[in-house]
UniProtKB/TrEMBL annotation, chain A:
Keywords: Oxidoreductase, Pyruvate, Thiamine pyrophosphate. This is Pyruvate dehydrogenase E1 component alpha subunit. It comes from Actinoplanes regularis. One of its GO terms (biological process) is branched-chain amino acid catabolic process. The keyword Protease does not apply. Pfam families: E1_dh (PF00676). Residues 72-353 form the Dehydrogenase E1 component domain. Residues 1-25 are annotated as: Disordered. CDD domains: TPP_E1_PDC_ADC_BCADC (cd02000). Its cofactor is thiamine diphosphate. InterPro entries: Alpha-ketoacid_DH_E1_comp, DH_E1, PdhA/BkdA, THDP-binding. It comes from the Bacteria. One of its GO terms (molecular function) is oxidoreductase activity, acting on the aldehyde or oxo group of donors, disulfide as acceptor.
UniProtKB/TrEMBL annotation, chain B:
Residues 5-180 form the Transketolase-like pyrimidine-binding domain. This is Pyruvate dehydrogenase E1 component beta subunit. One of its GO terms (molecular function) is oxidoreductase activity. Keywords: Oxidoreductase, Pyruvate, Thiamine pyrophosphate. Its cofactor is thiamine diphosphate. SMART domains: Transket_pyr. It comes from the Bacteria.
Length: 395, 328
């Protein structure tokens, strides 16, 4: 091998400015991020970024308690889903464990008129939209493929093909502009969720181009949970993800994704910029996937326990609890009540998931086309007749 | 009053009427605005309807279709132009995994009424990637409807019907026929038009059925005219709709004639003709005097322009197949 040549798959040279994004162990990344609530529960009040933007939050005690309740609830529901999967009641589950703050903060930042385009992991955002948490369980149980009305819930269907929804969000946001629904504080904004792995997809990069060119009223919310299944961030990027935005001509900003207040403040500001006609923002929520990629994954094959341990110290819920306790705005009774309420919700969810009937097989022929098709109709009829030909057929 | 115009102009008129009739219709694609498209199918539309209705997009096909999906969810009816057949593949994921499945996976709650226009086929002496026939890929995909027009009158009505349909429609335009002229009733109401998803007998006959669509319809008609001189009375059916195929019309014809020859430019292996042959065999077995024969492109990449005439089915190859059918 000639001098200077690198082996395929070798380590790329360090970026010129030495910006290493991912610090194993979960310290704040080089270059920092927007944080308003430290892992110890210290409320920083406000932060000003290098470009002079100040982010601050000042909630009522009730609102702070509300964040805590949301965080605990979505984690509890998630745990129930994981248990349901282990018991064979769900085919698969994509856990949000560790990403509660990124999702609850951004989810609460959405205004009612805003539209969200999730991946398959945004159960916390779904919950914050006021949607019944059972809604995506048909998909994971295998009794349907989602089956909800994106417009009714202002929450698009879960999208499993990595990155595709970012283009849908961008087109939808272009439609918002065409409808004249931007340029004022009560305008509409759109948020697209995706992961660090998704940032390598052509479609995601195309959506950045489009959003920039058309000044689309939207927020790209990337939950950098450090892994795309087994592949670490370094396999997706040579520069910090938020800095990609510069190349497309709009602001990019990194937040402490385990800080619900930062997630809320920065997302709210970005959404409001969008609705006011100032175009897109990329937010990189720097977080960690505490669990497996999905219930089918075995993370011990590709990451070490000490890394996970170090991220535990940055838990998104513990810091809110510490803050509430320190401020003396919540006591043991409150925490116990939140746990109990979440437990009951989870129980209710479990019962309703268990009660989800399998669909009649013939319904697989439903909704192929809005205007139907004689071919599908004929196959449905033949299917029915075939099954009816068996005595005692349940069909 | 009927006007005599080219197929390309008929599409242009149809698009114009769709834009006039429904403010939610938007046209998007590469160079569709100021330029009017590389084939001028959208000529003058941006000037009259504005940059928000006729959108010059960035040069990225997945982006065109993906953002069109979002616009459709928002309530728009996007009409996307893919510049050439060979450039649809960057959008293939969006078309097959998203466009085709939105209605299904949402249990009928999310519609993406959109049209994907693709100029297709060869015969124009083009450089590679500009002469392909990818219709089978899309016809194979449940959730998509696929049609192809073959003459100006159909081009005018079919494009409007496709836009009005809530189904996602892949609309194949026979690019080498863009300049062929025919009579078009521009004022005729769409409601009385021949249905979008129906085949049409263009030339009634009794001895064999020629099945073609898009650019090959002209070849089939010419072959039938030539065969008539030899005393053979061939029926020519323009399939018009490739998904779903209008099988009842085909079966009715083949049961009468007892012979069928399918013609398309796309490679034969697992193509539209293969499916037609199978279905005709299943349904018309006792009426058949000979196996269903296919005249298609060869199973090779589309060749260089200087030899494309030897690749494309032509009158002689169609007549040869007819001879073989009669010789069985
Ligand atoms: C186009 C595509 N390729 C591969 C997969 C399989 N797959 C599912 S999730 C995933 C990793 C996604 O990583 P990331 O975008 O970081 O999101 P995360 O799951 O970590 O939230 C892969 C490779 C897929 N769903 N879609």
């Amino acid at each position: 091998m000639a001098k200077g040549e690198r082996k395929a798959g070798g380590k790329p040279p360090a970026p010129a400015d030495g910006a290493v994004d991912r610090i194993p162990g979960g310290d704040a990344p080089a270059g920092g991020f927007v944080q308003l609530l430290t892992p110890d529960g210290e409320h920083l009040g406000s932060v000003t970024t290098a470009d002079g933007t100040t982010y601050s939050v000042d909630f009522t005690d009730e609102e702070y308690r509300g964040f805590y309740r949301d965080l605990v609830t979505v984690r509890r529901l998630d745990a129930e889903a994981t248990a349901l999967q282990r018991q064979g009641e769900l085919g698969i589950w994509a856990s949000l464990l560790g990403q509660e703050a990124a999702q609850v903060g951004s989810g609460r930042a959405l205004r009612q008129q805003d539209m969200a385009f999730p991946t398959y992991r945004e159960h916390g955002v779904l919950y914050c939209r006021g949607i019944d948490p059972i809604m995506p369980f048909g998909l994971f149980r295998g009794v349907d493929q989602g089956g909800w009305d994106a417009n009714e819930h202002k929450f698009n269907g879960y999208t499993i093909v990595i990155g595709s929804q970012t283009l849908h969000a961008t087109g939808y946001a272009m439609g918002v502009t065409m409808d004249g629904k931007t340029g004022s504080p009560d305008g509409e904004a759109v948020i697209a969720y995706f992961g660090d792995g998704a940032t390598s997809q052509g479609e995601v990069n195309e959506s950045f181009v489009w959003a920039g060119v058309f000044n689309a009223p939207m927020v790209f919310f990337c939950q950098n949970n450090q892994y795309a299944i087994s592949e670490p961030l370094e396999r997706q990027t040579r520069i910090p993800l938020y800095r990609r935005a510069a190349g497309y001509g709009f602001p990019g900003i990194r937040i402490d994704g385990n800080d619900v207040l930062a997630s809320y403040a920065v997302t709210r500001a970005a959404l409001d910029n969008a609705r006011n006609g100032q175009g897109p923002t990329l937010i990189e929520a720097y977080t960690y996937r505490m669990g497996a990629h999905t219930s089918s994954d075995d993370p011990t094959r590709y990451r070490i326990a000490s890394e996970v341990e170090s991220w535990k110290a940055k838990d998104p819920i513990a810091r809110v609890k510490a803050f509430l306790a320190k401020q003396q705005v919540a006591d043991a009774d409150f925490f116990a009540e939140v746990d109990e309420t979440a437990r009951k919700l989870a129980l209710d969810l479990r019962e309703r998931v268990l009660a989800m009937p399998d669909p009649q097989p013939v319904t697989m022929f439903d909704h192929v086309y809005p205007n139907s098709s004689p071919e599908v109709d004929a196959q449905r009829k033949a299917f029915d007749e075939y099954h009816a030909s068996f005595e005692g057929s349940g069909h | 009053m009927a006007e005599t115009i080219t197929l390309g102009k008929a599409l242009n008129h149809g698009l114009r009427r769709a834009l006039e009739n429904d403010p939610k219709v938007v046209i998007m694609g590469e160079d569709v605005g100021k330029l009017g498209g590389v084939f001028r199918i959208t000529d003058g539309l941006q000037k009259d309807f504005g940059e928000d209705r006729v959108i010059d997009t960035p040069l990225a096909e997945a982006g065109i279709i993906g953002t069109a999906v979002g616009l459709a969810i928002r309530g728009y009816r996007p009409v996307c132009e893919i510049q050439f057949d060979g450039f649809v593949f960057p959008a293939y994921n969006q078309i097959v995994a998203q466009v085709a499945k939105m209605f299904y996976r949402s249990k009928g709650k999310v519609r993406v009424p959109m049209v994907i226009r693709i100029p297709f086929g060869g015969g124009i002496g083009a450089v590679e990637h500009h002469s392909e026939s990818p219709e089978a890929y899309f016809s194979h995909t449940p959730g998509l409807k696929v049609v192809s027009c073959a003459n100006p009158a159909d081009a005018y009505t079919m494009i409007q019907q496709a836009i009005n349909s809530d189904d996602p429609v892949v609309f194949f335009e026979p690019k080498r026929r863009y300049w062929e002229k025919g009579e078009v009733e521009l004022e005729a109401p769409l409601s009385g038009a021949y249905p979008l998803h129906a085949a049409r007998v263009l030339r009634p006959g009794t001895d064999a059925t020629l099945l073609a669509y898009g650019p090959m319809v002209r070849v089939a008609l010419d072959a039938a005219a030539a065969a008539a001189e030899d005393g053979r009375n061939l029926e020519v059916i323009d399939l018009r709709t490739l998904s779903p195929v209008d099988y009842p019309a085909i079966f009715e014809s083949v049961r009468r004639t007892g012979r069928a020859v399918v013609v398309h430019e796309a490679p034969g292996n697992l193509g539209i003709g293969a499916e037609l042959a199978a279905r005709i065999t299943e349904e018309c077995f006792y009426s058949l005097e000979a196996p269903v024969l296919r005249v298609t492109g060869y199973d090779i990449p589309y060749p260089a322009a200087r030899v494309e005439e030897d690749f494309l089915p032509d009158l002689d190859r169609v007549l040869d197949a007819v001879d073989r059918s009669f010789g069985w």
